[in-house]
Amino acid sequence: MLPIDSTRNQLQLSANPLLATHAVKSVDVAELQAPTIHRHLLRETKRDIRDLRRKQTAAEAIAGLDHVHEIYGFTKGQFGLLQLLEAILERTGPARVSLSTWTAARHEIQTLDRHVKAGRLLSMRWLIDFSFARRDPEAAHQIRQTFGLDAIRVAQNHSKFALIEAEGWELVLRTSMNLNMNPRLEDFTLAHDPALASFLREVLNDIWTRQKRSLADASGREQRQFFTHEL
Q1: 95-100 and 46-51 as β-strands: parallel, antiparallel, unpaired?
Q2: Which of 22, 68, 114, 177 could form a cystine bridge with 81, CB 3.0-4.6 A?
Q3: 3.10.20.600, 3.40.50.300, 3.60.20.10, 3.30.870.10: which CATH number matches 44-229?
Q4: How many CB atoms within 10 Å of residue 149?
Q5: Higher confidence at residue 164 or residue 46?
């Protein structure tokens, strides 16, 4: 039975050992080399807001993609991030891609490999969550085989975006989607945005410079220490 304080007629609960009683360490963003905030005035170009719950293809979703419109799309998950990337490559021609995602499915990686072999995907680097290589080491191996040993960096990562760089294009795709099929409500924003592309490129370059590629296969403790103290 739980002890009762007779003077207050209240239950006395023992401390929960699972709850931290000490201050939680946090990252001082001022110590990062790359800027951590991109600020700009409201876009002068037109935002095209699209309800895509009845559209069945990614090509329909980004139809009319140009240099002056920002597309916001809201979907039921009838196509995924892979299909969006394929539709974008069809519009831009051969491109270099940088992707930040929490997870990726092997089927999607295999499909991207075919785009590499076809010359549509020139290079790709992957910022993934710490847990990805432990959850699916075969998928991480596929990424390295397809895109090179230096293709992966890890973080405690839940950001989802893609930077697509092609001749005449600096596209930024921001989305709720991971790189797997997930038939549920999702959204994305896509625009030719050189300023935001430059910001994200600088952040990614900083991570690739600071982090050794071997950290992706290190222990969870080592990965968390790097994330907390060095990233």
Answers
A1: unpaired
A2: 177
A3: 3.30.870.10
A4: 11
A5: 164
